[in-house]
Amino acid sequence: MNNTADAIIIGGGIIGCATGYYLTKKGLKVYLFEKDYLTAGSTGRCIGGIRQQFSTELSIRVAMESMKRFKELQAEQDIEFYQGGYLFLAHSKEKIETYKKLITLQRKLGLDVEFVDVKQITEIVPGINTEGLLGGAYCPSDGQANPFLVVDAYAREIKKHGAVFTQKEIIKLGIENGKVVSVKTDNNENFYAPVVVNTTGPFIKKFSLQFGIDIPIYPERHEALITEPIDRIFDPMIVDYRDDGCYFNQKFNNGSIIGCYTPKPNVPGLSLNSSFTFLKEMGRRMARILPKLRNIKIIRQWSGSYSMTPDGNPILDKTDIKGLFIIGGMCGHGFMLGPEIGRLSAELITGGPIPYDISSFSLKRDFAGHEVMR
Ligand SMILES: Cc1cc2nc3c(=O)[nH]c(=O)nc-3n(C[C@H](O)[C@H](O)[C@H](O)COP(=O)(O)OP(=O)(O)OC[C@H]3O[C@@H](n4cnc5c(N)ncnc54)[C@H](O)[C@@H]3O)c2cc1C
Questions:
Q1: Residues near 118 by Cβ (< 8 Å), separated by ≥ 6?
Q2: DSSP tag of 228
Q3: In the 3-class helix/strand/coil scheme, how is 273-286 assigned residue by residue?
Q4: What is the bridge-based pairing of β-strands 179-185 and 7-10?
Q5: Cis geometry, peptide bond prior to residue 216 (ω within 30 degrees of 0)
Q6: Gap between the Cα atoms of 324 and 265, Å rounded
Q7: Rounded to whole angstroms, how far apart are CA atoms 224 and 187?
Q8: Are residues 167 and 287 in the same domain?
Q9: Is residue 65 a part of any domain in this protein?
Q10: Is the dihedral of CA 339, 247, 78, 31 positive or negative?
Q11: CATH number, domain at 260?
């Protein structure tokens, strides 16, 4: 093993690993550095939902392409990919309007999404509480995959030509004449490459500030829980966007229910504490939507970070330092978008063809927009 590669990636989450995978597929020797273990960041804390229902052309397109990439990966190695759908519930006329408008755009782009009435919803999720329910948006080709297996599949590919280093924190970049040339680890080793990719997730802002790049990404704490396994009772991720709503699905591999809600107000910062409020509230909210869940046991809770951008879209761009790239700000959908973001990043880094306009993901964009399905 020598200390020179074609590209160095900092961060062993879905974004770093997917980018490394696609760079490796293009014949590059990649070194990936993770300060802890692979999936130690947000990726190992996510609930594994993958959907294509978004509100802008670009996000819908990236998500649809990502779904294809998950399918391709499943053909290489089992990642527990399962298309059980996503069902967004509407309890107000405004939500119905929003979903119907988005469905028109999503269908125009080829997504198999439809508006479903209450009767159809009770067929998709038998036993769902219909009180106040007016309809929903349902896409059967959405689904789930196992984040640990996806990262493992990507890491295996990187190791074919390059290496994955864990327990090695990158503490410094070597920059000469406006170009990145190397990285330094916390035990003072230097590794060299003409390309360095910063995919440090919630740490991306802090890490980038040391070399004068300020990125508008802010970590937020989000909590999750999982229940004991039970017999299969429903297929889709159920999403209730009401202020006291939540989202959850049943894991394909073992029948556990896994879910989260977005706290109001948000909890900014890097804290990974778990709260009793969430434990109690989440159980109550899930059972309100699906009363059959009332007596099942919660076996674990945890928390992780969303890396938020002001408009809810990722950042995927080069920087003013030649050879240095930044990919992050994945908000609550980094796992589902990760495969296609990795593929696009590999094209951007190698100067390959980018199949569609990704300027809305640029670092210097106007962040005034707003992803509605976030
Ligand atoms: C509770 C919860 C549920 C979620 N559910 C979903 C979901 O269902 N679907 C979905 O698509 N998304 C979901 N997300 C969001 C998703 O997890 C993130 O968007 C995604 O994992 C971001 O991936 P990443 O690779 O950018 O960051 P991370 O996974 O955080 O990876 C960054 C890595 O960089 C490492 N690192 C940082 N600094 C350094 C350094 N200096 N040197 C070396 N390594 C370093 C970190 O240790 C970390 O492992 C959820 C998130 C949470 C918290």
A1: 130, 133, 134, 135
A2: -
A3: CCCHHHHHHHHHHH
A4: unpaired
A5: no
A6: 35
A7: 34
A8: no
A9: no
A10: positive
A11: 3.30.9.10
List b or e across 57-83, with b for residues whose CB sees 16 or more CB atoms inside 10 angstroms: ebbbbbbbbbbebbeebbeeeebbbbb
Distance CA 44, CA 304 (A): 9
Structurally, the chain folds into a number of domains equal to: 2
- Residue 70 backbone dihedrals phi, psi, to 5 degrees: -60, -45
Ligand 1, atom 15, residue with closest C-alpha:
332
What is the residue type of 122? T
Residue 372's pLDDT band, with cuts at 50, 70 and 90, is low
Report which ligand 1 atom has the smallest distance to the Cα of 303.
Answer: 1
How far apart CA 149 and CA 78 sit, in angstroms, is 7
CATH number at residue 186: 3.50.50.60
C-alpha closest to that of 9 among 306, 322, 349, 355: 349
- Contact between 85 and 139 under an 8 Å Cβ cutoff? The reply is yes
106: Cβ contacts below 8 Å, ≥ 6 apart? 52, 53, 54, 60, 113, 139
293 inside domain? yes
Choose one of 19, 46, 148 to mutate for the ligand 1 pocket test, by most ligand atoms within 8 angstroms of C-beta: 46
Is the same domain home to 294 and 320? no
CB atoms within 10 A of CB 99: 25
Q: Answer for the pair 371, 312: CB distance below 8 angstroms, yes or no.
A: yes
Say if ligand 1 is within 6 A of residue 327 CB: no
The residue segments making up the domain with residue 267 are 85-135+219-307
- Is 0.90 surpassed by the pTM of this model? yes
Q: Are 275 and 223 in contact (CB under 8 A)?
A: yes
Which residues, in sequence order, are CB contacts of 249 under 8 Å at separation 6+? Answer: 47, 49, 84, 144, 234, 235, 236, 237, 238, 257, 258, 259
Going from the Cα of 335 to the center of ligand 1, the distance in angstroms, rounded, reads 8
Closest ligand 1 atom, CA of 332?
Answer: 15
Q: Does residue 323's CB lie within 6 angstroms of at least one atom of ligand 1?
A: no
Q: What is the pLDDT of residues 156-211, one digit of tens each?
A: 999 999 999 999 999 999 999 999 999 999 999 999 999 999 999 999 999 999 88
Q: What mean pLDDT do residues 32-53 have? A: 98
Helix (H/G/I), strand (E/B), else coil: 124? helix
